[in-house]
Structures are given as C-alpha cells and as structure tokens.
Design a protein that fits this description.
alpha+beta; 5-stranded mixed sheet; Actin, Chain A, domain 4; 13 helices
C-alpha cells in the first residue's frame, strides 16, 4: 500500500519558522518560501478576515490603515495565534498542492527543541486541519543537522547551531539522538530589535522592523572584516520633531548594537560545549561547529564564534533551507523519519 500512497499523494515537509515558512514537496524539492506574515482585517464586531498571506502581507508591515493589521502568528518559534497560523498553513499548503490527490499527504513539521505538549498539539491540529493523512514532528536542530549533511546516525558528536528568526537551536547529536540541546529565544528578531533600539537611542530615530532587518542584511556584522558595506542611509521618523529624517549609520556601530544578542548566543554555545560528554567533545574539536538558519548569513559570525570557542566553524551550504531539506530527506527515508520524529 505504501507504493500507492507515494504515487498518489504529495507528501510535504514544512519548516514553520518565525520569520519564513518553507515547504518541501517529495519528488520536487522546495516549492515555497514565504514570510510567516498574515494581513488581517477586523470588523466592528471583532470578526477577522484574512486579506493577504506571505510576501504580499509582509509588504504591508508598518503600512496598514486602521482596521487592518499585518501580524506574525509565530513568536519565538512557537504559535502565538492558533487561528491565524492554521489559516496561514492552509493557504501555503493549498498553494503548493496544484492538483487534487487521491491520497491525503503525509506532513512533517519542524518544531523547536523543548516544545511543550500543548504547543505540539497546536501544531498537529493546525496541520490536520489542512487534511493531512499523518503528521510527524521533528525537532529543528535534528532536521538542520540532516539538511547540513552531518552523519547523525554514526556514534560520533555533531554540533549544530541553527540561528533562525525567533530562536537559536543548539544541539549535539549522536546515534540519531540529541545528546544535548538548548532552545534560546535570541535570534534574528532580537538582532532587529537591537538595531531599532540603537537608532532610537543614538539618533532619536524611529524605524520599523522591515527597515531594521534591511540594515542588518546590508551592513550587519559580527566581527571586524571587509566583507560588508561600511555605511548605509537609514530613513525613519524623528521622535522629537515628528518629521521624516535620514541618517547615515556605519557597520562598526551596527556591530556594537548586535553585540548583546550575539554574546547571549556565544554564552549558550559555550554552555553546550561544557555539557557535552568528553568523547563527543573530542569529535567536535575535529569536526567543528556547523551553522544553519538565516542568522548564519550574518557577515563574519563564523569568525566571531571561531574566536570565542577556538573551534572550527562551518556555515552549511544552504543555511536558510537546511531545516526543511533535512525534513525533506526524512520524507524519502521512512526508517530515518521514525528514528528522529518526536511523539
């Protein structure tokens, strides 16, 4: 019967991220990568109607009129608004399911390590509401390690650091199991907030989250180096005068602004290394630390971690897609899926 199911259903792996939702379809690869943003209109009776999802909704962030709100239904890696998350998932899944299938799809969803039973149930119910045949949950660091090509089934230590939008997942994996893991609620969003606070404090300039993210992508950096632009013009609102204003900021000051969230990530990585059994520590010394997630693309973050830990640091080949690619591989290898899926 399994051959029949695989022939007539479009099995999916979903990285339900705080910032971005990626979907992998069996046999086709990554078929969708959209911001985890939903534009919602609320009427006078308090009833909500969805106007846009994904890229179109993100364009509305900070620009909506009264009665319309562009919201991110996931915060710190978990569902903050169940109803909107369910609607967003249904939209993305229907968008990639271009044809009706005879068999409902099997769905794998990646979740942060240490997710509570209540949160697991919310994620499962969101997926089941989209007519999934079976729903499996995989912890994000495990999926990231698989997607980064680490030999997780071998009796050797593999360290993965997945810096996403809402959380940084740090894990040491051996024999297809997590030996140590920690989910830190400091990641890309906190970096954006640090930039916003810096601009407010130093220049009395108020900017939105989209502008802060653009500054991070353009001149954000974790360690001195020549790999980023050195200056950028930033537009916002002068808090005192209440009028639009443009200031020029430097890469050096943005690095200083990011030092606090980055130091928290460094501290968590050191704590993971201290908690790792000695035999596995020896493996990590040889193999190094592998970085995944969008935060791995912050300029020179590998140099910072190398300086702070004294270990080799390697950025995954496709850090943004590592989690969903790992879950997609589990779709193709059911024995591996049963080994790494959480109950």
């Amino acid at each position: 019967m399994s051959w029949f199911n695989s022939l007539f259903s479009n099995d999916l792996a979903i990285d339900l991220g705080t910032a971005t939702t990626l979907i992998y379809m069996k046999g086709r690869g990554i078929v969708s990568s959209e911001p985890s943003v939903v534009a919602v209109q609320t009427d006078k009776r308090g009833e909500r109607r969805i106007l846009a999802v994904g890229k179109e909704a993100k364009e509305m962030l900070g620009r909506t009129p009264i009665g319309i709100e562009a919201i991110r239904p996931l915060r710190d890696g978990v569902i903050a608004d169940f109803e909107i998350t369910e609607a967003m998932l249904r939209y993305f899944i229907l968008k990639v399911q271009q044809r009706r299938t005879l068999v409902r799809p099997r769905v794998i969803i990646c979740v942060p390590f240490g997710i509570t039973d209540v949160e697991k149930r919310a994620v499962r119910e969101s997926a089941e509401s989209t007519s999934a045949r079976e729903v499996f949950l995989i912890e994000e660091p495990m999926a990231a390690a698989i997607g980064a090509g680490l030999p997780i089934t071998e009796p050797a230590g593999n360290m993965i650091v997945d810096i996403g939008g809402g959380t940084t997942e740090i894990a040491v994996i051996s024999l297809a199991g997590i030996v140590y893991s920690h989910s830190l609620k400091v990641a890309g969003d906190r970096m954006d907030q640090a930039i916003t606070q810096h601009l407010r404090r130093k220049y009395n300039l108020l900017v939105g989250e989209r502008t802060a993210e653009a500054v991070k992508l353009r001149i954000g950096n974790a360690f001195p180096g020549a790999s980023v632009d050195q200056h950028m013009e930033v537009r916002g609102r002068d808090i005192s005068a209440g009028v639009p204003r443009t200031v020029t900021v430097s890469a050096d000051e943005i690095r200083e602004a990011l030092s606090e969230p980055l130091s928290e990530i460094v501290h968590a990585i050191r704590a993971a290394l201290e908690a790792t059994p000695p035999e596995l520590s020896a493996d990590i010394v040889d193999k190094g630390i592998v970085l995944a997630g969008g935060g791995a693309l912050l300029a020179n973050i590998d140099l910072l971690l190398r300086e702070e830990t004294g270990l080799p640091v390697i950025v995954a080949e496709d850090p943004i897609s590592a989690v969903v690619l790992g879950a997609g591989r589990a779709l193709d290898e059911l024995d591996l899926l049963r080994e790494v899926a959480i109950r």
